[in-house]
Amino acid sequence: MRIVGDLDVADRILQALEAVSDPELPALSIVDLGMVREVSGGPRPGVVLTPTFVGCPATQVIRERVGQRLEEAGLGQTQVALRLAPPWTSDWISDRGRRRLMELGLAPPAPRRDETPSACPRCASPRTEQISAFGGAPCLELRRCLACQEPYQGFKCH
Amino acid sequence: MAKLAHAHDLARHLVALGDDSLVLGQNLASWCGHAPTLELDLALTNISLDCIGLAQVYLQAAAEHLGVGDADRLAFRRDVLDFRNLLLVEQPNGDFGRTIARQLLYSQWHVLALERLARSPCEVLADVAPKAAKEAAYHLRFAQEWAQRLAGGTAESRARLEDGLAWCGRFVDELFLLDDHGAALVVAGVIDDPASLRPRFDQGIVDCLGDLARALDRSGAQIGGGRMGRHTEHLGRLLSDLQFLQRAYPERVW
Description:
heterodimer; A: GMP Synthetase, Chain A, domain 3; 2 domains; three-stranded antiparallel beta sheet; 22% helix; B: mainly alpha; Ferritin
């Protein structure tokens, strides 16, 4: 994440963004999700977001929520821009974000493609398998634990 | 985009790419609630969503340049002859075998095409292509896995995939052709000639299907023209679903 302009203002923006989440993942802030790529403390305060997936319907909602939240936080008119490049990667999810996902029952993404997938979010067994590469949201996949037999959704390593 | 000498050709090319994605996305969306299993229902609609998201990016950029409003305007208010998508993507879903055949051919081409677009000097293309490439890789893997499963399944599943390949095979050559706008962009160095993708495309299909790739050859004469606005009868029907609301109630918002 890049921080430019007035650091105090940027810090206030960042704090305000901690309260904004993806409607599909309410326990996770967009900062932890790695969507916030740039925070500008001025001259015109603003934020640059990178969507997790190009067609993710949550993107528009998030963008509106960010504008609203920053206004509520007394930051006035801010600029909320979307930027596609460089593309979002699940490696941008913070450690706190990964813990929150685990608490939600969603397996965090494997750190890099083709690495060992995360353990089962219910019983912590490392013996899991993919059921389908597509889940209930663009960023999720369907998995199953081979130890406790429970199916669950995991974050795609993307 | 305005800085490029071939901005108009580029906008027309973005319309073509956007139409590919939009039409395929609409076709795939109609599997919702009808796929053979719940997982497949989710997969096909997820792919559809990726397609429509990408269409939005392309069409929005095109609309801004052409001065015709926004992506929605291009998607919902153009007539069938103004669409510039490939004929392959407008082919009806048919059964699951044909949908997988269509997806395999399109995704194999799309993954290769996006690799090239990522290196384009055009900012819109270079920005969106790396992102779309990650998504397209998922689509291709899905289609490959299912093509192989159908091919190695029962006699019936194999026959259905084969029929799907024979149906879609007629539209393969068109993937590697360009209209005048595309050709001008090749000359200007904004995009690469898609004909150069053909060997890797063929290899990818053979690697996935083996002997079954020959089913593509029994589809008969090649048909093209989608990039010039000459479509099969299926596109009109698809658009009548897609565009109904904005046609009946222009400018109505959600």
